[in-house]
Structures are given as structure tokens and as C-alpha cells.
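--- STAGE predict ---
source: upstream dedup step, 1 unique chain passed
mode: sequence only
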Amino acid sequence: MKIAIIGTGNVGSALARGLRKSSHSHTVVLGARDITNKATQDLAADVGAGLASPAEAAKSADLVVLALPWNVAEAAVKALGDLSGKIVIDCMNPLGMIGGVLELTLGHTTSGGEIVASWLPGARVVKTLNQVGAEIMADNAGMPHRPVMFMAGDDTQAKAAVATVLTDLGFEPLDAGDIRTSRLLEPFGMVWINQALLRGKGRTWAFAAVDRT
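--- STAGE serialize ---
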């Protein structure tokens, strides 16, 4: 599968590294605003990825991953052009500083996932990869349980394709329902942030779905 990762920050870089370690062959292209940036070029070389402008990367891909800061997401996503028919993974949490504390900026009546879907009419948006930190996306080998990764979206076939990518990244994919379920997954991501950053647990852990044997 040809995968475009839009954004080369912590999350985008981690996903590129995770896909590089996958036993399955994916063609990855990084969508970056400045393809002449040395750090971006070094990342592309390190993970064996192509490098293009965000719009060019998205246009050429079968699956597009949005790995952008929420405060710049709307303009950046709308600048990608028409993504009708393409599978789009939204791994962004709508975070902002509220009263000096990092919080979700929306929640009960809508979600980041639903808003992204409204920005991309015709695209097959799946909310996922928002529930752990970048370190676990890059490498989760050696954990006693495969980490779980929930996904939400309206297109069953799109979620099936995303599930294969999540499996390749080392996760156990679980379907949480339609795109409205992003209203659950985004606060769930905040639980990880709370424990990792505010409660001292650190960044090298993940949630798991453990069945009774």
C-alpha cells in the first residue's frame, strides 16, 4: 500500500519508523512543507521514504495519515485538495491550552474526527492512532501484550484496510464504531497523556485488551 504521512513531527516521524520496521511492504511518502529541510531529508533517507509537498504526497497515495498539530490542521488539511475516495487516518487530538492546562478543546457535541471528516467530503476518514505516544508507534516490540488501538469510522472497508496497517505497526486493532465514536477515543487519548505526562508513568507504555483465558 502507498501511504502518505502528512507531517514530519514526532508522530509522523514515529509512524514512518514503525512502518519501516513492518514485515509487510508499504511504500511511504512524507508530505512536508519544506522538502529542502535537512532534518526532513535525513528522516526520509533513514526510513526509506519518498518526499513531496503535502498535496503531492496525498494525491499519490492510497492511504493518507494526518499527523499535524491541531492548531494548524484545518488550513493544512484543506490545502491537500480533493481526497474523495481515499482512506484518511486522523491521528490528531484536538488539544489546546485551557486555563494553563493541556485539554481537549471540544468533545460532547462533536469531535476532532468528525470535524476532519467535514473538511474532507468524500474521503473515508478513520480516527485512530491517537491513543498512545510516538514512542509506541515507532516500536512496541517486546511488550507482554500486544497494545490495543481503537478505530472509528463510517466505512467498513476503510476500517478493514486501516486494521491491516495497525497490525503491521504492532497493534491489536479494535473497531469502536462510526466516526461519532471519536468523541470517546479522543478523551481516551487524554487518559494516556494524563498518566504519561502528568502522573509520572512515562511514555513507553500502552493500553492492552486482555481476555480471560
